[in-house]
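Researcher: Quick test of sequence recovery. Tokens follow.
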């Protein structure tokens, strides 16, 4: 069937002519529509407004990924020794557990109690224990062996956990849970041979050998790329660093056999609310690893664990995090991840409670069971735009990996990696400050009267930000650790994209009376509403209240309303025509009434106006300047 039958044929040149005509009617001057409509990524990849078959990077079958129609493993993260929470997740549809073990998290000695009622042959276990990985692994081995000695059951008592997994009774690791003697274990021990938090090459190799010999369904090594992402890395930088880290681990395990070493690795990547970027990243990651395997003369499929990004999560208006994590989870599933962790929406604020954990797992269940996302193998495969972006991203990531290797490998290239990521972090920070990358509920549409979530009644013991809790994590400037381990570059910070705006919100909230900016609206409501709403939205992003003058053009009336408001900073809001007629007079009247600074919503300059607010201005600089003018300090 020809779906295009009956429609007139066209080509890209025809589209260009039509699109350019529309753009010019809108006042946009550009030589081509691509020039006006294309955007770029932090990796220098151009995202075009239109793709066709000419953009496909070579011959089919491109990067198709076969996956069982049962979908992916729903992996929930736990950092507290709470058996009830673990069982609630498993009975609610979670298919594997990611356990943060060690000081400030789950004590190693508590593992048997925590897993007492868990069927280890149905629920894979992934450990995150940093330098205590060997100790945690021994505890897990001992538990599995004891279960086997009791009669071959991998469950240690009366259990509330269902008799089969939420994905049809198979191991959620895709059917690779294999008996080691009479015991069954699958998952990952979370070891790494290199970097802070690593157990070292000898221990990593020992654990890998034991997994291969006694627990074939269990992997020993996690190649965790999320700390690079949490430090502000671009997608290509995250991918290149992950391949370099994986190759370093391969070298540590190579004496065990190349094929065995490849089989012991699992990769962990961040999934963001940029849907197509995440899909392309996971697909590119498999292409990169396939290239490494090809060079090494083995066949090995990359096993991926995608975690919804910590950096994108917000503490303000945290309910929006549900939308962010839903997009990220969808992208991870479509991108072909084998396991997905959705972080609870309140993870940046507190220890997640039963409700937020339920929402996190139900997000995945809805996508799997109702939307059927996991039933299709690589649904983005063959898409002109996705295939092009996958290929471009893989090319840049491979070039970055080669740079790291040329510098001596991931451990020796710490300064190179830190510097490259710092540069990307600064570019992203500038885009966030100018609201070119808006953060809903924070830099845009801030809700000053939102009711804060109550803190968890369960003591975390892991710092102020549970999202960053990990015994293996790097430490940021606030002394908070990042989840999922640390890269070799101990100097890498841990950031959240919203942190600068949220710091200003916190400062404003801490004042006895909320700081205020007066909006000097000029003219009728229809003339000033658009710019008054724009200015209010910007000031609210910093936690500043706004009060408007109402309709009118009389400078003295506006100045009187300003004086009554008690504000010391004002912003003119109106149309360009009315600015030309009244801006200077109103600004002068505001000065006489005691205004320390007068802003104007727009780009025109007038006597008495200090600076302008406009789309694309540095909103953080505007807010910080206003805080200084209002004499608001920490």
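Model:
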């Amino acid at each position: 069937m020809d779906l295009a039958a009956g429609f007139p044929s066209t080509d890209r040149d025809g589209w260009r002519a039509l699109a350019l005509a529309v753009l010019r009617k809108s006042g946009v001057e550009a030589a081509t529509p691509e020039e006006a409509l294309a955007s770029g990524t932090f990796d220098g990849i151009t995202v075009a407004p239109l793709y066709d078959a000419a953009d496909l990077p070579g011959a089919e079958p491109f990067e198709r990924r076969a996956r069982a129609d049962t979908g992916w493993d729903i992996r929930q993260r736990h950092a507290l020794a709470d058996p009830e929470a673990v069982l609630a997740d498993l009975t609610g549809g979670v298919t594997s557990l990611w356990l943060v073990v060690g000081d400030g998290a789950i004590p190693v000695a508590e593992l048997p109690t925590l897993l007492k009622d868990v069927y280890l042959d149905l629920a894979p276990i992934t450990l995150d224990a940093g330098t205590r990985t060997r100790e945690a692994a021994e505890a897990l081995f001992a538990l599995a062996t004891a279960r086997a000695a009791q009669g071959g059951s991998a469950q240690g008592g009366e259990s509330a956990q269902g008799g089969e997994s939420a994905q049809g009774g198979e191991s959620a690791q895709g059917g690779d849970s294999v008996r080691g003697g009479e015991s069954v274990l699958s998952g990952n021990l979370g070891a790494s041979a290199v970097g802070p938090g690593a157990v070292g090459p000898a221990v990593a190799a020992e654990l890998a050998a034991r997994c291969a010999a006694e627990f074939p369904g269990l992997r020993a090594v996690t190649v965790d790329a999320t700390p690079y992402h949490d430090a502000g890395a671009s997608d290509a930088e995250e991918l290149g660093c992950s391949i370099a880290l994986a190759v370093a681990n391969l070298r540590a395990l190579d004496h065990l056999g190349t094929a065995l070493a490849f089989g012991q690795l699992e990769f962990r990547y961040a999934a963001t609310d940029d849907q197509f970027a995440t899909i392309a990243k996971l697909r590119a990651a498999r292409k990169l690893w396939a290239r490494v395997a090809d060079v090494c003369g083995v066949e090995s499929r990359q096993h991926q664990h995608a975690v919804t990004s910590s950096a994108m999560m917000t503490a303000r208006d945290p309910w929006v995090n549900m939308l962010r994590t839903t997009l990220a989870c969808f992208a991870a599933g479509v991108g072909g991840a084998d396991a997905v962790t959705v972080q609870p929406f309140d993870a940046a604020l507190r220890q997640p409670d039963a409700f937020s954990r339920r929402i996190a797992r139900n997000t995945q269940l809805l996508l799997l069971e109702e939307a059927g996302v996991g039933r299709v193998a690589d649904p983005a495969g063959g898409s002109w735009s996705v295939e092009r972006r996958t290929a471009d991203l893989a090319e840049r990531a491979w070039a970055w990996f080669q740079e790291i290797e040329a510098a001596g490998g991931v451990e020796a290239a710490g300064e190179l990696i830190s510097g490259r990521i710092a540069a990307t972090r600064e570019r992203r920070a500038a885009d966030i400050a100018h609201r070119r990358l808006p953060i809903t509920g924070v830099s845009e549409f801030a809700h000053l009267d939102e009711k804060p979530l109550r803190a968890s009644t369960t003591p975390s013991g892991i710092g102020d930000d549970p999202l960053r809790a990990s015994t293996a994590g790097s430490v940021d400037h606030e002394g908070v650790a990042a989840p999922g381990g640390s890269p070799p570059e101990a100097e890498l910070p841990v950031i959240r994209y919203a942190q600068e705006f949220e710091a200003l919100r916190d400062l404003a909230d801490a004042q006895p009376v909320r700081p205020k900016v007066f909006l000097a609206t000029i003219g009728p409501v229809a003339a000033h509403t658009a710019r008054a709403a724009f200015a209010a939205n910007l000031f609210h992003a910093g936690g500043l209240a706004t009060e408007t003058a109402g309709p009118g053009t009389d400078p003295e009336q506006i100045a009187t309303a300003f004086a009554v408001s008690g504000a010391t900073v004002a912003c003119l809001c109106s149309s360009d025509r009315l600015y030309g007629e009244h801006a200077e007079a109103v600004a002068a009247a505001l000065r006489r009434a005691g205004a320390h600074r007068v802003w104007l919503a727009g780009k025109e300059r007038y006597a008495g106006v200090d600076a302008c607010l406009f789309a694309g201005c540095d909103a953080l600089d505007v807010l910080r300047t206003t805080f200084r003018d209002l004499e608001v300090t920490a």
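The first strand starts at residue 39 and ends at 40.
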